Amino acid sequence: MPTRPFRALAAAALSALLALAPASAHWWGPKTPPGRPGFPAQIPPSETGYTLKTYADAMNAAIAAVFNEEWGVLDRMHDEFLASRQRTTHGLWMLEALQGAWDAQLDVEDTTDMDRWLGKWQAGAPDSRMRKLVMAIRWQRQAWVARGGGSASSVPGEGMRLFRERLAKAAAALDEAGPAGRESPLWYWVALIVAGSSQQPASAMDALYEEAAGKFPTYHTIHYTRLNYLLPQWGGSFEAVDRFVGRVVERTRATDGEAFYAWLYMDVADKTEGDLFTETAARWPRMKKAFQDMLARYPDDFNRNRFATFACRARDRETTAALLQELGPRASLGYASPGYTTESCRRFAFSKA
Question: Do 235 and 200 contact (CB within 8 A), yes or no?
Fold first, then answer.
């Protein structure tokens, strides 16, 4: 069964961990008065503290900017995040927050209200780069809403026709974005989804991916999207996936060590069924090292919880116990791992067996 393309950060996982992250303040953050989002006086962009909470704040601000008709805010956020390539304490780019916010906002069947706001945005800022990118996101997401995540044979003809029509509109939106659009990893993320969903040749996908990864080597969703179309359910194989993972690790080793091995195989786990360590080419010793490199650079409990989850899946009792002790009441295990919970992993880690 084909999987729908990756979305930056699952809303449930994000909301479950927001309480663990300290508050942040940035020029695009919410005002103090409750009930109406807005934007306070400018805070220097060099301010630090880009936590999971900051990431969530940016997601909310990305939507509020349009609802408040603050047309320049979203473009400024995009341009500052892109120029700085700012990453958070859990390792994602801040720019991925804007991508994830709009992808989630448009993952609905009825876009009537949103289309009204997008129309106002077009009238108020016709040259906005971010608006053009959001239109591309709109059509690729709506294509998948029409198709659903089942196998092609399970989708009725009308659904497949809508799928193809909306993919064509996404491609047209990418063209409208022009050269300025290609300066953003969001453009490449949508373009890869459109290429893969349209069953373009692997050579075309690879050329597009190499261009994207050459410009933005540590932008997670570029790698996740290309990997998606190497999975067996898309006609690929786990051997092809493993070769791809190895190449990404080599590409990012200077900045992230082995961390992308864990990030990419977590994505595989989220998109496939069965045991990760027996049905795919993932190997725990290397994944453990990748998590250690990840935590050395991005020491967020978000990552520590995922490390503990996969240690539990790999039946590494010692590592699971050590991580659970570090996390204490902040433990929240189970990402992409049905049947593995905080309580079940505690029982495994601290049992006498």
Answer: no
Beta bridge partners of 87: 93
Exposed e or buried b per residue across 207-222, where buried means at least 16 C-beta atoms within 10 angstroms of its C-beta = ebbeebbeebbbbbbb
Helix (H, G, I), strand (E, B) or coil at 172: helix
Greatest Cα-to-Cα distance within the chain, rounded to the nearest angstrom: 67
Burial of 134 (0-12, 13-18, 19+ CB in 10 A): buried
Residue 296 CA to residue 303 CA, distance in Å, equals 11
* Neighbour count for residue 109 (Cβ, 10 Å): 7
pTM of the model: 0.88
Q: Both tokens of residue 227?
A: 């990997």
Rounded Cα–Cα distance for residues 316 and 328 (Å): 18
Instruction: State the CB neighbour count (10 A cutoff) for residue 103.
Output: 25
Q: Are 334 and 12 a contacting pair, CB within 8 Å?
A: no
- For residue 152, the model assigns a pLDDT of 66
Rounded to an integer, what distance in angstroms lies between the CA atom of residue 61 and that of residue 78? 11
Percentage of the chain lying above the pLDDT 70 cut: 85
* 138 contacts 118 by C-beta, under 8 angstroms: yes
Is the distance from CB of 259 to CB of 290 less than 8 angstroms? yes
Report pLDDT for 12. Answer: 42
Task: Kindly report the length of the chain.
Answer: 353
Six token digits for residue 154: 């399970």
Convert the pLDDT of each residue in 136-172 to its tens digit: 999 999 999 888 776 666 666 787 898 899 999 999 9
Residues of the chain under the 70 pLDDT cut: 1-25, 30-48, 150-156, 353
| Whole-number pLDDT of residue 10 | 45
